[in-house]
Amino acid sequence: MDAKTKKKNKRIEHWQWVAICLMIYDFVMIHLGYFFALWVRFDGKFSAIPTTYLKEYMFSISIYAVGTIILFWFFHMYKTMWRFVSYPEVMRFSIGSVIASVFYTLVVTLVLGRMPLSYYVGGALIQVLAVNIIRCSYRVFLYLKSTPVREDETVDRVMLIGAGSAGQAILRDIRGTAIIKEKVVCVIDDNPNKWGRYMEGVPIVGGRDDIFANVEKYHVNKIYFAIPSAKAAVKRDIINICKDTGCELKQLPGLYQFVTDQVSVKNMKDVSVEDLLGREPIKADMKEVFEFIHGKRVLVTGGGGSIGSELCRQIAAHEPECLIIFDVYENNAYAVQLELREKYPNLHLEVLIGSVRDSRRMYEIFEEFKPQIVYHAAAHKHVPLMEDSPCEAIKNNAIGTYKTAYAAMAHGCERFVLISTDKAVNPTNIMGASKRLCEMIIQSFDAKIKAGKADEIPQLFTHESDEDFLKKHKNSRNLEEVRTEFVAVRFGNVLGSNGSVIPIFKKQIEAGGPVTVTHPDIVRYFMTIPEAVSLVMLAGTYAKGGEIFVLDMGTEVKIDTLARNLIKLSGFKPDVDIKIEYTGLRPGEKLYEEKLMAEEGLKRTENELIHIGCPIPFETDEFLKNLDNLMQAAYRNKEDIRARVKGIVTTYHPQNASKK
Fold first, then answer.
1. What is the pTM of this model?
2. 339 touches 333 (CB < 8 A)
3. Active-site residue identified among 381, 403, 423, 590
């Protein structure tokens, strides 16, 4: 170690200088405090104090002061950050002083002789006050320093909703942080017992019905919702009031932040549209999922996408033997890989790049890793883009599903779960029709397997080299013994997923508008990504083979209302600050999405949020034969691909088909 490093290590830190100064202060104040108590006891006349008392005081007080300082050091009272001193620190200082005073009283009385009772009591009180005053003074100084605001300084005026512990913490954080140019001017709370009172000097002006009046009275331009324990319905009602005030609105994410002491302005987040849905988050009992996945080898295709990545997160949390993430887009796959390796360092994770269209690649993966469960999320999902490239929808969605399903069956996979969509119901666009083809594919596979005719399922070859490769591997397993269960799970839109309307609306609002809505009456079903994935995994555990599970998406939401709420939550007025433009339905887009086809019935499962649709019967052999022809047409980019799909999917009714 060089001289420079030694010198640096010997340097006394700032807090250590403060601690030394506090020790000196405590030493002096203990002397002065007890002397003052003795002096007052004898009417403020030094000459009236008996010599015996003075001798006992002078003999004992320095020893007591040193002992008290040692006790304070033991209680870490010289290491506290004085900027954040509060009730717990005051209690610790007071208890430490009282313990020292009681010990001092006993020792002096038993060893030296009796002193006046007022000497002990008065000295102890003065010591407690002196110790706490100096330690609290720095925080008071910061408070006084942060309170004055120059008239020419722009400061946001904040309304705080919630006069509880979280609200108090937010208020203190705003006052104690110099860089936060905000001022809490009023507090709202639904408890009438708090109305007309003050929290940290700020008036509690009423309940939710008084929000509008006080926003105007106090010129509020920001509202902080600080009730982390509020029920979803309560939060929805209050936020619905707040969003119409035109104020910027933020909230604490939830109870977790409160419990972990993360209540501060920087932890406040924007109020999301999910908060306006007004329902409690769907909490599925994942015990069955844990038992199903635990110790299994699981493959997720499209594992880098919105749904696929959340599937990977939840699967990783259930301790699989191995998790294989497969995606064609390396950036997304890499991001999920980094996230999961950091969070689950002991997880056996494989991240592979490739396309579900590639039969060779799929066979290689199944031969090497032998996944027991497959969640097939890989698909092209953007309706307008697929309308312009219909053959790509068939290649990737339908044929990619077929090739993945065949590889799974040929290698003894236990369960294959297809992620489908409500757009597969009475489809008017090629993307929805391609997903209906996917459902029909897994129904065909399941029917053949149950009939003991799995070997009749044809392999689809895109290239001659694929045919040669797959013929060599065809006999690797006796297909008559296959017991793979194929199921599909169908649900609607998920909030915040790639390509969903909410991220698009947010970008348009940030750019100052306009916000584009295709039609004023268009409606959709919505669910959060974690909710949808939890139900997908749970539905997969119920599978017997051949089912199409339908998730209960709740009440449909009007997209126009969604856009207007987002504008209001951002502190703007729809059609005033941010314009809304109606652009017309896009090619293949419907005003509403159905969850079931009219011909399908509905059966209940053990979970009230998961239902089973009875499949529409179709001729399996004819379908499989037509699918081969459809694949050939898709790879030749035939312009009549929609007509060919319509010949197979009888519920497909193309609308506004692109002339391309």
1. 0.64
2. no
3. 423
